[in-house]
């Protein structure tokens, strides 16, 4: 936003405008004001007032800056004493589509927009467009870097930082928390019988079911392969056990169903290993990074025992699982 505001300010100075606004959107209906200056600017931003419909459609159809004159009050500056005499509009275009409009109003002496003004504003509009595209691209990249592409869940990169924060917060608040290792039972059998596409579908449905079951209580991460991790930031042994069993039962109840082409995915079950922070030995004076690793190790060992006992069950770690 700071860069966009600076771009708008630079454009206003370059062409001596008394007011102006920057709108972002791909259609006349979706255009919304994201930066403004001059009379009525505060109201314009608070209401996210759209640009006049006929004017915005005209601007979005064009590829070059243009000037219009008017002797009526500009609808975007309602409730102010401002009256639009002349406006310079420059479309923001990424090469294949319009993504916004830059509008500048009422230049000071000379009280008209010149051919040079149109060229300057067109260049600044290009700069603003590049900024918007780069920001959008960075957000997409950041989202991809933090999320598993198959399930859409947060991935192991996010797990490391968020688990460290959760452990530190629990220690400061002198409260307990839980971590759960969740493993899909017999995924290799699904792959062998129905193909790897079915295995991927099983993982997607399992991730969705875990996310639904943990909503508002725990955060779900794709750890890798057929394993997921659930972090419950505020927990007791009883509430952690209850959540783990809810995760297990919801996966079993919601994963079966038809697939393409003409196959039916069987019900998927999971095994869950649960470790409690206060169940670890020697908590005092231990850094959060060490406690995090010990929690994961204890939960992993509890998961191993759940699988060894027949799968499709929940096992809580004991102090004997807390060893490196």
- Spatial shape: elongated
* Regions with little confidence, pLDDT below 50 for 5+ residues: 71-81
> What value does the average pLDDT take?
84
CATH fold name of the largest domain, please?
A: Alpha-Beta Plaits
User: Percentage of helical residues?
Assistant: 40-55%
DSSP strand tally:
12
Beta fraction:
15-25%
Give the full name of the CATH homologous superfamily of the largest domain: Reverse transcriptase/Diguanylate cyclase domain
Q: Strands of the largest sheet, in order across it?
A: 2-1-5-4-3
Calculate Rg over CA atoms.
29 Å
- Total domains: 2
Structural class: alpha+beta
Distance between the termini: 48 Å
**The first-level CATH class name of the largest domain:** Alpha Beta
Write the H/E string, N to C. Answer: HEEHHEEEHHEHHEEHEEEHE
- Which CATH architecture of the largest domain is right? 2-Layer Sandwich
The major pleated sheet works out as: 5 strands, antiparallel
Q: Tally the helices: what do you get?
A: 9
Compact summary:
It contains nine helices and twelve strands. The protein has helices at 2-15, 41-47, 53-61, 115-146, 156-172, 187-194, 196-214, 237-254, 288-308; strands at residues 17-24, 32-37, 66-69, 86-93, 98-107, 178-184, 219-224, 227-232, 257-259, 263-265, 270-276, 314-316. A five-stranded antiparallel β-sheet has the order 2-1-5-4-3, with helices on both faces. A five-stranded mixed β-sheet has the order 7-8-6-11-12, sandwiched between helices.
């Amino acid at each position: 936003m700071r860069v966009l505001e600076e771009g708008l300010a630079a454009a206003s100075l370059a062409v001596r405008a008394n007011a102006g606004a920057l709108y972002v959107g791909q259609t006349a209906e979706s255009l919304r004001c994201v930066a403004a200056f001059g009379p009525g600017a505060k109201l314009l931003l608070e209401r996210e007032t759209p640009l006049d419909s006929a004017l915005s459609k005209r601007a979005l159809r064009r590829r070059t800056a243009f000037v219009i004159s008017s002797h009526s009050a500009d609808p975007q500056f309602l409730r102010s004493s401002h009256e639009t005499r002349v406006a310079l509009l420059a479309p923001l275009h990424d090469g294949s589509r319009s993504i916004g409009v830059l509008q500048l109003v009422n230049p000071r002496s000379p009280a008209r927009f010149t051919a040079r003004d149109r060229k300057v504003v067109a260049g600044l509009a290009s700069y603003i467009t590049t900024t918007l595209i780069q920001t959008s691209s960075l957000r997409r990249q950041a989202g991809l870097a933090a999320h598993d592409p198959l399930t859409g869940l947060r991935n192991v990169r996010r797990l490391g930082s968020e688990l460290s924060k959760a452990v530190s917060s629990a220690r400061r608040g002198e409260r307990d928390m839980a971590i759960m290792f969740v493993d899909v039972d017999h995924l290799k059998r699904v792959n062998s019988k129905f193909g790897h596409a079915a295995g991927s579908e099983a993982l997607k449905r399992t991730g969705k079911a875990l996310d639904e079951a943990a909503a508002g209580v725990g955060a779900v991460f794709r750890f890798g392969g057929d394993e997921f991790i659930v972090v419950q930031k505020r927990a007791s042994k009883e509430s952690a056990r209850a959540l783990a069993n809810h995760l297990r039962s919801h996966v079993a109840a919601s994963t079966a169903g038809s697939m393409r082409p003409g196959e039916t995915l069987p019900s998927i079950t999971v095994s869950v290993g649960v470790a409690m922070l206060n169940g670890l030995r020697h908590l005092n004076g231990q850094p959060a990074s060490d406690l995090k690793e010990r929690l994961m190790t204890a939960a992993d060992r509890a998961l191993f025992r759940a699988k060894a006992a027949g799968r499709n069950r929940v096992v809580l770690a004991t102090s004997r699982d807390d060893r490196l």
